[in-house]
User: Fold Ribonuclease PH from Spongiibacter thalassae.
Amino acid sequence: MIRPSERAVDEKRSLSITRNYTCHAEGSVLVATGDTKVLCTASVESGVPGFLRGKGQGWITAEYGMLPRSTGSRMGREAARGKQSGRTQEIQRLIGRSLRAAVDLSALGENTITLDCDVIQADGGTRTASITGACVALVDAIRSLQRSGAISTEPLKQMVAAVSVGIYQGQAVLDLDYIEDSSAETDMNVVMDESGGIIEVQGTAEGATFSRAEMNAMMDLAEKGIAELIAAQKAALAE
Amino acid sequence: MIRPSERAVDEKRSLSITRNYTCHAEGSVLVATGDTKVLCTASVESGVPGFLRGKGQGWITAEYGMLPRSTGSRMGREAARGKQSGRTQEIQRLIGRSLRAAVDLSALGENTITLDCDVIQADGGTRTASITGACVALVDAIRSLQRSGAISTEPLKQMVAAVSVGIYQGQAVLDLDYIEDSSAETDMNVVMDESGGIIEVQGTAEGATFSRAEMNAMMDLAEKGIAELIAAQKAALAE
Amino acid sequence: MIRPSERAVDEKRSLSITRNYTCHAEGSVLVATGDTKVLCTASVESGVPGFLRGKGQGWITAEYGMLPRSTGSRMGREAARGKQSGRTQEIQRLIGRSLRAAVDLSALGENTITLDCDVIQADGGTRTASITGACVALVDAIRSLQRSGAISTEPLKQMVAAVSVGIYQGQAVLDLDYIEDSSAETDMNVVMDESGGIIEVQGTAEGATFSRAEMNAMMDLAEKGIAELIAAQKAALAE
Amino acid sequence: MIRPSERAVDEKRSLSITRNYTCHAEGSVLVATGDTKVLCTASVESGVPGFLRGKGQGWITAEYGMLPRSTGSRMGREAARGKQSGRTQEIQRLIGRSLRAAVDLSALGENTITLDCDVIQADGGTRTASITGACVALVDAIRSLQRSGAISTEPLKQMVAAVSVGIYQGQAVLDLDYIEDSSAETDMNVVMDESGGIIEVQGTAEGATFSRAEMNAMMDLAEKGIAELIAAQKAALAE
Amino acid sequence: MIRPSERAVDEKRSLSITRNYTCHAEGSVLVATGDTKVLCTASVESGVPGFLRGKGQGWITAEYGMLPRSTGSRMGREAARGKQSGRTQEIQRLIGRSLRAAVDLSALGENTITLDCDVIQADGGTRTASITGACVALVDAIRSLQRSGAISTEPLKQMVAAVSVGIYQGQAVLDLDYIEDSSAETDMNVVMDESGGIIEVQGTAEGATFSRAEMNAMMDLAEKGIAELIAAQKAALAE
Amino acid sequence: MIRPSERAVDEKRSLSITRNYTCHAEGSVLVATGDTKVLCTASVESGVPGFLRGKGQGWITAEYGMLPRSTGSRMGREAARGKQSGRTQEIQRLIGRSLRAAVDLSALGENTITLDCDVIQADGGTRTASITGACVALVDAIRSLQRSGAISTEPLKQMVAAVSVGIYQGQAVLDLDYIEDSSAETDMNVVMDESGGIIEVQGTAEGATFSRAEMNAMMDLAEKGIAELIAAQKAALAE
Assistant:
């Protein structure tokens, strides 16, 4: 089996992480994995949502959107249709949960950090790229809170990254692009932290079911890929 | 470790499946797993959504809702608030995907079957109970299409059922009720077919991350639980 | 004239009232009148809406919904369409007004009781069954407030029940089922209290108009029917 | 008992009906009853809603609105809030039903007449004034269809008018203005045709219940008032 | 070139301004310019929107609507469609900005005046007629605040009025009616104060572009027309 | 007077136009004017909206959005709030009208080109930058229609560009950035074509009114600025 991109089965796409991509946000990262490009901004606001008020802890939340022509054919603009699709809500809930796992909310003070992940160009894997990029933007936002003296604690527990894996033509593969994703038998998104702890696994059979053995093969690839992604995040943050 | 319900770690709650619970729907099943009760109806309509028209195949879709006082404290009614929550949409997308895996859509004719899963009483595991109950309602609806002569094919490929598993006080457990679910370290919903093929896995760390070993322990429990559920579905259908 | 159900013109359908049908609500009643089944829950919440704050009185309100397949053909789910129909709003306003007539709001303390009437199965007369069932659930909720010591007063003034009457094939009849309702010349819903006081009358000509004499004949039937319903409510509460 | 307006108990407010109030609509009537002023326009459109297509009959429907400052204190604009209130929907459904009783829909051809009732100034009784005024606008619209040759039949069966009655300080009174309406024990809206046939009765106890005798006293007043209103409609149409 | 209305190119339509058109609002003006009729009410409410709270100043805002049959063919009701069109929002923002230019907000106290401009009958120029009429209603509302003693300052800085101008068949013309507006090459709305200061200019080419010379010719006409309108406003206020 | 940016009064910000910024759209342009950056994509779809069907002409429309953190403090996401603001709708209507002036719609065939203007980073002048950038994307989309053979005509009539001008500290200035815009006495957006024909003028006094002389001074600056912008558009298209 040769992948459409001619990558090896355990080879992820080339990754670039550009910090300070825009000038206003406390964290602003353009993450590009192959042709998928997502702008991830982290915005710090003082205060927390009502259900957390007075508990002395912070909050991390996320929103996700796709520019109407980030995709091969134009999608209707969600703002114009007047609601976010189920897919959008599912993804932004996933991003929020994943990023909260990176942080000790009680060390964040009563501050809210909102991660906006807006897809500029899509070629598969936008939700996992969003998580990987948003984690870098989140660190920059935390650093800005520390620099300004708003907090003197360290809320960052660990880096978090995500990748998609799948079964394509009977073979477990790492980091599916759109062509593979469209015809994969199984698609699985995995979120892990830097010590290999699993934060989220979402695997879906498309057509055929998958076996425990296939699931394990995919998890192996995900572990390898996420380790590489976290190395890249750390390199970007070290610049 | 003793579970709040005093069940063994690999013991699911008692299950009852009542067919023909209401009189109008082509399939109507009340599924009760412990104190969780969900009414699952299957409605057959001739025709398919626009994106499938003229392709000679059918469609399966699902909607999910909770009665406002199915829960410990009253939740706002989604119809009154004017939109379905992200959680609701996520669940009904999951139910629809899972049930489509049970059926050969090309053998269904240009018919749509809508599964409505309405939670009458909630005690954890409403989404997995919905899938388990809806599959029985779906079979009844398929049988009614066959009896009426609308189709002479067999669209049913296999039974599908779902269960939740989790890590509770460091231990993998089967079929979490609300008390366990509220304090579990990890919650994982698993959907499988009757031959043990995996249709969907959704595992989420709440607080601590989970390991590959824990994931495997949870998958073992899910396999056992789903096999029991499918046996119960078949028994109910045999009546 | 023989009614489709072969009932006498002044004969209502068989009624059953099941208390404690679900476990979380302060009052939970399944009311079944013939094939019409409505789950009525009463939820107590501390506090009142803004327009009543600080006035030292309570509030009773109601919401109404039909499960999508409670009817002969599936109706779109209101939560999915993003709004409640005019019919739904009309009915829930009627239920709320009717139940407030049963209660001395100033003896309720600053508590709100919300009656949720969800139609599980419909065969005509769902709004009147909702009122009859909700009144029993309301009493259970009031009793729970008293048992808990939240109030030491008696807010219940009187039982309230409702029935539909109509002109079917030129004849006044009591408690129309769906078949009669669909072809009745006039449909009238009547709400009364246990002393025969009228709380609400809503009569609508469908096709032909109706006369003062017909209106009086219908009111006579309504009085009889409601007296029987209130007796049944009291019997259920005495259990 | 002296009414705030010093009217006799069976005395309705002065009524004026101005036809051709605006220039574009096929029927355009400003109806003023005391200080209540409603602009009723009837708009003819070729075609019918989907559920009537191909049945060779017409349709009558109604919409109702209040200008934001038609009332003593400004109400939020429904277009700005993004939805019509339950009260608005209830009223426009009532107006539509009432006007359909005036017309033989099968003689209307496949035409739709929409009655828009917009309250310019409110002082109680806006829904009944809307019905009374809209019926005149409807006749003008029917006449325009006949003049243009679009139909050669006579769809008008009878004039329809409406009035409110109530129990005010223990006494049945005709045509309540806002002051009376605010403190009435019972409020009842009655719609009748010119031969005294009842089209709709909606009576609501506010606080105290009402008796059969009071109901009859109110109906007597309504009959008298509606007969006067229909005479005024006919006089206006004869000009 | 002869205008459809046979008016001279610099001749505006006849104008009438009727104060106290309805009885509840603090200012209520029916403005008629030719066949265009707009009811402008000014409602005073104590308090200001959140973004101004505690700043010791007032606020002026506007809402705009068209009755469904104010136009040649019936338009859908915005309240029924559940949102205001882009055109409606654009117009009400323009009216609000224009009227705020008439007033010293810091002399208004913490009061909000809402101008509701509802088009009863449309024949072109409804937004400019709204501004002209609303300014008179605003003055009446300010006078009522002063009479009641709520403020002892003079918030009114100057009268404001508006008119449309355009290029019709190659010629600059004043105050376009609907027929001219539909085929004009350019349409420009101008808002000025009584000393000729420009508050707003909005010129749009429809088809052909326009030149600086044409723009100047239109501005000359607008100056003339607005001077006449302001004289009429002052005459109406002097009554 | 020294401008905050130290630019001369008739000096616009530096401009860059990057074509083919993303890979899927038929035209994709990142326009940057100073710190304002807007991604303008042009999407070609076969077919036209309903109101143009069968007329043998094409359509140009536009949508506009701001990424939530394109601005100094985070704005709520319009898709999450469920509606586009009045400002957004006003701007996208302006962009659409302006771009339609660049094109002979009857030479476009029954094709629709949608311009999506999404603000990545905002520093004033986003609507005018959107028009300037979208025109380049539009040309690329037209060229792609011609290359593919879908049309063999030339729909492009002329280039169109836009700039803001204003009165800042009593002085007419070209191309206001956010700091100037926030405190300008007057803000005017001007859209012109390459022969100097005016397509749209929108001038708004903020605080003080402006005079005819000031309006002329602003128009002179706008002419100069737009000529420079159109030269830059042409240079970018020549690459």
